């Protein structure tokens, strides 16, 4: 009887180990293929950061996947969108204003809605942005509150968040890529960074299961300790 109990206990332990193993990060993702290690240390807190531009066609097509990813992230982890200002379609000042327009929407709990609206205006209706007033007009004709826009657009929190976007752009635009030292980590958009250490290689993901694999890879990198 004792021998049989020992065997059963061993089986139970094996089952428990297997169940625990299922909760550990998957190992199907490979450095150099699915992601690049671009920094020696990770951020103190888990984070996912997207560099993008409303003028970028690839970013426009990537946006639905980004919004799905944002909703699939673990509790306490937010996707931080960083609008860049180096696209030649408009001046850096106008691109900064577009970033602030997005941040105003985000502060109102409508970040995804405003991002989709701006993307659609540029890539579907071929709309142009030449000034802050163009951004304001687009939001207002789509039922965004005028007072909320005017009170937030030049507010300290929005200006500070826009400057943080610029600081991150400057940092990663001047950090050499380990894969090719002649190129910076931020050489184009869209670009995803996880924990300030891992650059996601979007082209390596299965196009048929892109959203699923993106979520799996980001989750794996968020949990990665080395």
Describe, in plain words, how this protein is organized in 3D.
The protein has a single domain (26-223), classed as Glutaredoxin. 50% of the residues lie in helices and 12% in strands. It contains 8 helices and 7 strands, in the order αββαβαααααββββα. The strands form 2 sheets. A 5-stranded mixed β-sheet has the order 1-7-6-2-3, with helices on both faces. It is globular and about 50 Å long. Residues 1-24 have low confidence and may be disordered.
Summarize the structure.
By secondary structure, this protein is an alpha+beta fold. 50% of the residues lie in helices and 12% in strands.
Features:
globular, Glutaredoxin, 226 residues, five-stranded mixed beta sheet, disordered N terminus, two-stranded antiparallel ribbon
Question: Topology, please?
Answer:
Layout: H1 2-21, E1 35-37, E2 48-52, H2 57-72, E3 79-83, H3 92-107, H4 111-123, H5 132-141, H6 146-152, H7 156-173, E4 176-177, E5 180-184, E6 191-194, E7 198-200, H8 210-223
Parallel strand pairs: 2-3
Antiparallel strand pairs: 1-7, 2-6, 4-5, 6-7
Structural class: alpha+beta
Please describe the biggest sheet, giving its number of strands, its sense, and whether it closes into a barrel.
5 strands, mixed
Radius of gyration: 21 Å
Show unreliable segments: 1-24
């Amino acid at each position: 009887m004792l021998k049989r109990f020992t065997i059963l206990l061993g089986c139970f332990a094996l089952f428990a180990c297997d169940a625990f193993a299922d909760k550990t990060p998957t190992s199907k993702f490979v450095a150099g293929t699915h992601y690049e290690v671009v920094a020696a240390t990770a951020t103190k807190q888990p984070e996912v950061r997207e560099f993008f531009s409303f003028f970028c066609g690839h970013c426009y097509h990537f946006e639905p996947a980004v919004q799905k990813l944002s909703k699939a992230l673990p509790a306490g982890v937010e996707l931080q969108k960083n609008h860049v200002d180096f696209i030649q379609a408009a001046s850096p000042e106008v691109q900064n204003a577009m970033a602030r327009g997005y941040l105003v929407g985000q502060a109102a709990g409508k970040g995804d809605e405003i991002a989709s609206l701006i993307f659609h205006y540029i890539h579907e209706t071929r709309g142009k942005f030449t000034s802050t007033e163009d951004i304001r007009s687009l939001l207002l004709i789509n039922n965004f509150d005028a007072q909320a826009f005017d009170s937030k657009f030049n507010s300290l929190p929005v200006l500070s968040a826009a400057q943080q976007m610029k600081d991150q752009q400057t940092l990663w635009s001047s950090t050499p890529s380990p894969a090719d030292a002649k190129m910076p980590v931020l050489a184009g958009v869209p670009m995803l960074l996880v924990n300030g250490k891992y650059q996601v290689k979007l082209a390596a993901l299965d196009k048929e299961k892109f959203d699923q694999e993106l979520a799996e890879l980001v989750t794996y990198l968020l949990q990665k300790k080395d």
